[in-house]
Amino acid sequence: MHPAPSIVLFTTLSGVGYGLLFLLGLAAPFGQLPGDPAFGTVALGLALGLCAAGLLSSLAHLRHPERAWRAISQWRSSWLSREGLAALLTFLPAAVLGWGWIFEGRIIVAAAIVSALGAAATVYCTARIYATLQPIRQWRHPAVTTLYLLYALASGAVLLVLLLLLWDWRAQEAAFLAAFATAAAWLIKLRYWRDIDGGRSIATPESATGLGHLGSVRLLEPPHTEENYLLKEMGFRVARRHAERLRRLAAGSGFLLPVASLIVIIASAGWWELPLAALAAIGVLLGTLVERWLFFAEATHTVILYYGRQA
Amino acid sequence: MTALPATPTSKKLGLVIDLDTCVGCQACVVNCKEWNTQGYPAPLSDSEPYGAAPSGAWLNRVHGFEVGEGPTAQIVHFPKSCLHCENAACVTVCPTGASYKRQADGIVLVDEDKCIGCGLCAWACPYGAREMDPGVGVMKKCTLCIDRIYNENIPEAEREPACVRTCPTRARHFGDLGDSDSAVSKLVAERGGFDLMAEMGYRPTNKYLPPRPRRCGAADSAKRLTPEPVAATGLLGWLDRLLDRV
Question: What is the pTM of this model?
């Protein structure tokens, strides 16, 4: 599948943003965060800013962004519509939470909890858009939904560690959660990569043409001489050599670097905590971006069976 | 709107494509483009049609496959367009309600004024039946020529899809596959018509008819084509022996 930069950016940025919002909404009512209005402004501003940046980036993928408002109408059947609706609705309790935190100096518990639930629901809907597409076996993998949720949680938690350290606040628990979520996400991802490498679509050139009873089916003459929309969009190929290299980069930057930094932050205290947290945040963001690019680039669609390729 | 009809539609208009008689002439491809670029609803555009890398939206394409091995291998021309599935995921994934399946006849259509061009429906289709129009930026697909089949301004004999109308070998048939007494349903029953990628669970309406078994084994015909050594006699025999010696 074509890894459109707008979608790679959208799922990554909104994942981080909603992940951070989820943690803010859960931790704030229990007094686990600085009650300082400045912290509320920066933390909520960062979370909602990332969400908004992601959503704006997704508009760049549309050929008719001026009609985007229509996309929230079909929530009864479409996960994309549900995601759009959840993404926008979550801004309402988040705004109430922000109002209380910044202007009244108090945490409105109901708004905080509903923000957290809305954030989780949004990321869940994003994952379901992909996980429910029958023709793409790599996206039908049962770990896809869990992975989207874990990546959002991990990247949000790493950002929270950075924010807490900036406010000179105790970050041990957040660092522990961030390390745990990051490790869980990447261990599942490594298993996912092994699975998709060894898998094949249940559909074959024989079933796609219904001619299997006559023997093996091979493409003799493609229907067009140039690349068409189908091949550009669904026939994207990434060389195995490059994919291997990118996987190592993603795992090194998104997994080893942040987990090592977080362990140091948990185990010791000192001036190095802040730079290490910043390093972990950059590593997680870069790692997730590369992981998300690969999520698209390595996915194969059954339409390529009609073009003499394996899905 | 993007929910599928609650009960399966009683009428299931669709195509039956005969892989035995299709000769891969591409006439259906061209006539489909021709009709749909000038009629309902907007042009079916191309980008750089006369440039170095021409590309464009087409609603019907003919692939050529080589099937089987050795002397029994054969070439099968394979036309492919929207199959108007009963379980059409392209409809349910649409976030705007632009994609829909008609209760009246089961035809799957796109309301081009509502389409935002997100492309998710094309991802949801296992067959690659939908293509983005490069000029208009909305998704295009086979309409089963709704502007022909219900068009009272054209003679009744012409009220069938452009691809069916133009096929010189009558490899394409149009009719109601929901009616077991229709000509197309009988054809499917008689010839063992099948679904494409049934394992995907989309329950396509369009059916394909398999190539008929070859009349004579290709192996036999291969043998017949091999010249058998014949011992020549008379003048020719003498020439033959003479030439052998030279």
Answer: 0.92
